[in-house]
Write a structure and sequence with these properties.
About 70% of the residues lie in helices and about 0% in strands. With about 550 residues, the chain is mainly α. Heme-as binds next to helix 6, helix 9, helix 10 and helix 12.
């Protein structure tokens, strides 16, 4: 049996901490969304940025605020609330540690954002060398990561305390999932911390005059791929463990849900080379091995799809549905807590298909570095993940602030999700088509080579700008709802739904919480996938090494 109902309500002191994370997250959404609107307008070729604002500066604001700040702060707030609800109130020490983490992250974000606004860090969200930013930008990012470790430490400590107090029992599913995601994050961020602290920061401070680009990109992508699963897993927390309760059904299998999370921990990290398939200097055999491992990390998503279909079908049949898709009509479409994340799930089918195309070496040669890839991540993170985060906010924010999701806000939330779906269909769809026509990503209109070629892309660029403008309306709607739920909605009790497993399911095997085993296998896979190629990259910086060593001075 799951021990899911530790606290029916998140303790008000924990709620304050979770809300602090959400305030930063939604401020990032407002500013990053505005930057996104400007960007699509500029790419249409019809608009020029005023006051000397540069396209790459706006692109950096957009990517850093939405890709890094909105996601990380939302995830921290959500995980704090989920752990407090299911494993019990945080101790004063753990909560204080959480606040220290929050402030480190917030100060770091402010430092990095200031440098971007001052045009001292137009290096995009991937901050690849040889693009160089002001040292304060990197110090700010380092504080964000260190802060997230501190905040994550408090979550892990709370989980460990639960296990000490409940020997021989499976931990609450949501707490377990939040802890897997935190461990994944800590292991992944070691790569980006290494490149920033050992390579990029000394170079940006002028202490060294060159940087090995291939090493820095490899360390970045060691982090970059698990980063996307760090975004995805909180959405899966909602899909596996919260949605079943909202629809009135049951979790199909607690063990399957935990196993899929463990598989993400094992396979999301040793796959970074699939972002570097076209880069020279990495032995093709190791690229091949990492592509195979990439296909392994698709399996837990297929398991998730299976489990979700099983939950929906079982629920539908219990309500009298018949036929293959009869369950579809039984789902609670009028409830934004369900329908908004559900749109995210549906979007994840084409989004995941795009990911499989990217991971397939030969097809990646066609789409790599085109705006197709941007279309891919606007479907994955900016639709599946973000719509699920919005869906969670619509009940979690009132739960934390002691208010209720009113009928009017519920209706507006559904309208918001529809606006988002229409806007993103235009935007991500046109990005995919442009990418197939060879349109590059990360380029301003004026930087395109070949006016004739650019002319072929123009209808899609206009569609992209239309989509971007509709999405901006979507962002305004989210902000209206969030502000209402945080400050103006009527006072009351909003439920924090936590699913229960179907009756008669097998007991969850405790081996799924054997951390020595899973951390050991994780370390083994990372060492296997990276040790030899990494030594190779350092020892044999290929042809003449000049292509890989930047002589900055
Ligand atoms: Fe990706 C590039 C491969 C998933 C994000 N990806 C990116 C970048 C980002 C990103 C940000 O192999 C760009 C990075 C940059 O700036 O350069 N990606 C994959 C693969 C997957 C995948 C194999 N990506 C994601 C997710 C992301 C994300 C998730 C964010 C959250 N991606 C790549 C590759 C590249 C890449 C290459 C580099 C390309 C290049 O050339 O640079 C897989 O994890 C996808 C598996 C997903 C599925 C779908 C399962 C479906 C489910 C929904 C069920 C629905 C239900 C509802 C039940 C197999 C679970 C049904 C209802 C009905 C009515 C039907």
């Amino acid at each position: 049996m799951l021990n899911t109902n530790k606290n029916e309500k998140v303790d008000s002191r924990d709620a304050k901490l979770a809300m602090a994370f959400f305030y930063v997250a939604f401020t990032a959404l407002a500013l990053g969304g505005l930057a996104g609107l400007l960007q699509t307008l500029v790419r249409s070729g019809k608009v020029e940025l005023p006051w000397g604002i540069d396209y790459y500066q706006v692109l950096t604001v957009h990517g850093v605020l939405l890709g890094l700040v909105l996601t990380t702060f939302f995830i921290m707030g959500f995980q704090y609330a989920a752990i407090s609800r299911t494993a019990g109130t945080f101790t004063n020490g753990a909560r204080k540690t959480g606040w220290i983490g929050f402030w480190l992250m917030t100060v770091g974000t402010a430092m990095a954002a200031t440098m971007v606004l001052l045009k001292e860090a137009s290096v995009l969200y991937t901050f690849y060398a040889p693009l160089q930013a002001h040292p304060i930008f990197y110090i700010g990012l380092t504080l964000v990561i260190v802060g997230s470790w501190v905040a994550g430490g408090a979550m892990i400590a709370t989980y460990a305390r639960w296990r000490r107090n409940n020997p021989g029992q499976s931990s609450p599913l949501l707490t377990f999932m939040a802890v897997v995601n935190t461990v994944l994050w800590i292991v992944a961020t070691l790569g980006v911390a290494a490149t920033v602290l050992i390579q990029i920061l000394p170079w940006s401070l002028g202490l060294v005059d060159r940087i090995d680009i291939l090493v820095s990109r490899t360390l970045f992508w060691y982090f970059g791929h698990p980063l996307v699963y760090f975004w995805l897993l909180p959405a899966y927390m909602c899909w596996y463990a919260i949605i079943p309760k909202i629809i009135g059904g049951k979790i199909f299998s607690d063990s399957l849900a935990r196993l899929s999370f463990i598989l993400f921990l094992l396979f999301s990290i040793p796959v970074g080379f699939h972002h570097q398939l076209v880069e020279p200097g990495i032995d093709p055999a190791w690229k091949y091995i990492q592509v195979v491992l990439t296909f392994m990390v698709i399996i837990p998503s297929l398991m998730t799809a299976f489990s979700l279909f099983a939950t929906f079908e079982t629920y539908g049949r219990s309500k009298g549905a018949t036929g293959l898709f009869g369950w579809f009509r039984k789902l609670p479409w009028g409830d934004a807590r369900f329908s908004v994340p559900f749109i995210g799930m549906v979007a994840f089918i084409p989004a995941g298909t795009g990911g499989i195309i990217n991971a397939s070496n030969q097809m990646d040669q066609v789409v790599h570095n085109t705006i197709w890839v941007t279309g891919h991540f606007h479907l994955t993170v900016a639709t599946s993940v973000v719509l699920t985060f919005f869906g969670v906010s619509y009940w979690l924010i009132p739960h934390l602030t002691g208010r209720v999701l009113t009928k009017a806000m519920n209706k507006l939330a559904i309208v918001q999700a529809m606006v988002w779906t229409i806007g993103m269909s235009f935007m991500s769809g046109s990005m995919h088509f442009q990418g197939l026509l060879g349109a590059p990503r990360r380029s301003s209109f004026s930087d395109y080579g070949g006016a004739q070629q650019a002319a072929d892309w123009i209808p899609y660029q206009i569609a992209q700008a239309v989509g971007g403008s509709i999405l901006f309306i979507g962002i305004i709607l989210v902000l209206i709802i969030v502000i209402n739920l945080a400050f103006f909605a009527p006072k009351g009790e909003q439920d924090f739904p936590v699913g229960e497993v179907a009756e008669g399911t097998e007991k969850t095997p405790l081996v799924l919480e054997n951390w020595k085993l899973w951390l050991g296998v994780t370390a083994f896979l990372i060492l296997f996938a990276y040790t030899i190629p990494f030594i190779d990259i350092i020892q044999n910086a290929p042809p003449g090494s000049k292509g890989f060593q930047l002589w900055a001075k």
